[in-house]
């Protein structure tokens, strides 16, 4: 078997596949990297491109570069737009990118499985970004790659490593533990996929991550230092104020919307923030409310925040709720003078319907952030939320 095949479903996954490929370049595992201009302009990038770079069939192993990236396209417009732009960056680096309308309506699942069967069987290594994805789990039941790499798709990597190490079934941290009808139907798929995600005789498993994870037995953990991002973009121009980073904790049913809005306003006042970088899953209604009530400029990033911040301009302080960026931004912005702060989630902000694991997981994300990251503790008083900055 030859070749490497990556499956991505989000812009961050694709970014981290590029970071992983960058670490393989010295051994010849990725196409030669082309330089950018001082400001990170893609126009200055040399033309290092694959033969069939635009929607080439990933099964064409003879013409493909060592790594072929398959985008299992999501349905929401924001994710699709960011993925389109990230796909072009990957093509600019010389990789074949195949855009697969995996959720394009009736028949899309069968068509996707049929088109991917051949490259799946021939792949020496498979790289995935979301081991909790039902789509990826289904693909994993159809083949057993000799080498498997899991790259970050947010803080879920921490939960994946912990669950794999404990031998537990794979459940996203914000989901409640009980199995619903859909989960019961898919339980055999999840069970087999969990076995395929674990190291075994004839199969190696690697976790490529910027997050603090404890390696499960037999699993190799490789650090993602965002070397590709730092090489290709920046350093950024720094503005005098602060930027806030939004989260989809309200949309996922974890945090109460009223508490969230009040804390965003308090953070903006305390830090003199002028911009709010929205998470791609935040609702338009919530973002409109934040803009009207706080005066913040709401920005819908066209690329993952690590690239947006590195290209600049960016505030001298970036304030975020517990999320992946409190681990990734200090790496991507190393040496730029930008300070990153994390605002911890108070128990009073959680909705009654939130998973019992939510508070502990979010506290762990904030508590394990890099030592360069400032921590902002939050306590709900009787009538208002008061933030303590430390």
The largest sheet, given as strand count, sense and whether it forms a barrel, is:
7 strands, parallel
* Number of domain units: 2
> Which sequence of strands runs across the widest sheet?
3-2-1-4-5-6-7
Order of helices and strands: EHEHEHEHEHHEEHEHEHEHEHEHEE
Q: Quickly give the structural class.
A: alpha/beta
Radius of gyration computed on alpha carbons: 21 Å
Low-confidence stretches: 32-65, 380-386
What value does the average pLDDT take? 80
Helix content: 25-40%
What is the count of β-strands? 14
Shape: globular
Question: Whole-Å distance between the termini?
Answer: 54 Å
Strand percent estimate: 15-25%
How many DSSP H or I helices?
A: 12
Can you put this structure into words, describing what you see?
- By secondary structure, this protein is an alpha/beta fold.
- It has two domains: 4-229, no CATH class; 234-389, Rossmann fold (3-Layer(aba) Sandwich), CATH 3.40.50.
- The chain is 35% helix and 19% strand.
- The protein has a seven-stranded parallel β-sheet, with helices on both faces. The chain has a seven-stranded mixed β-sheet with strand order 10-9-8-11-12-13-14, sandwiched between helices.
- Strand 9 (273-277), helix 9 and strand 10 (297-299) form a beta-alpha-beta unit.
- Helix 8 crosses helix 9 (284-294) and helix 10 runs parallel beside helix 11.
- It is globular.
- Residues 32-65 and 380-386 have low confidence and may be disordered.
């Amino acid at each position: 078997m030859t070749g490497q095949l990556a499956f991505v479903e989000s812009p961050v996954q694709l970014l981290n596949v590029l970071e992983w490929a960058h670490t393989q370049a010295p051994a010849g595992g990725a196409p030669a990297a082309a330089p950018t201009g001082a400001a990170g302009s893609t126009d200055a990038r040399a033309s290092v491109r694959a033969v069939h770079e635009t929607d080439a069939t990933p099964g064409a192993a003879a013409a493909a570069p060592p790594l072929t990236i398959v985008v299992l396209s999501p349905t929401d417009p924001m994710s699709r737009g960011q993925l389109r732009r990230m796909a072009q960056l990957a093509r600019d680096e010389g990789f074949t990118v195949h855009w697969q309308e995996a959720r394009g309506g009736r028949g899309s699942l069968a068509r996707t499985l049929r088109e991917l069967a051949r490259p799946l069987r021939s792949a020496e290594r498979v790289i995935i970004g979301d081991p909790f994805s039902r789509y990826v789990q289904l693909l994993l039941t159809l083949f057993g790659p000799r080498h498997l790499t899991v790259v970050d798709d947010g803080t879920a990597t921490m939960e994946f490593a912990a669950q794999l190490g404990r031998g537990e079934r794979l459940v996203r941290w914000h989901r409640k533990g009980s199995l619903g009808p859909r989960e019961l139907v898919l339980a055999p798929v999840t069970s087999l996929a969990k076995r395929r995600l674990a190291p075994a005789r004839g199969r190696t498993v690697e976790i490529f991550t910027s997050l603090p994870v404890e390696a499960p037995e037999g699993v190799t953990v490789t650090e993602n230092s965002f070397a590709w991002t730092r090489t290709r973009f920046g350093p950024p121009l720094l503005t005098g104020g602060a930027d806030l980073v939004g989260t989809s904790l309200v949309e996922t049913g974890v945090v109460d919307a009223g508490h969230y809005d009040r804390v965003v306003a308090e953070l903006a006042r305390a830090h003199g923030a002028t911009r709010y970088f929205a998470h791609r899953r935040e609702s338009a209604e919530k973002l409109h409310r934040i803009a009207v009530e706080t005066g913040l400029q709401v920005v819908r990033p066209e690329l993952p925040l690590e690239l947006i911040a590195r290209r600049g301009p960016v505030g001298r302080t970036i304030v975020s709720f517990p999320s992946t960026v409190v681990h990734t931004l200090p790496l991507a912005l190393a040496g730029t003078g930008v300070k990153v702060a994390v605002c911890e989630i108070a128990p009073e902000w959680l909705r009654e319907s939130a998973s019992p694991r939510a508070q502990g997981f979010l506290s762990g994300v904030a508590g394990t952030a890099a030592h360069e990251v400032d921590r902002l503790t939050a306590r709900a008083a009787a009538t208002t939320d008061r933030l303590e900055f430390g």
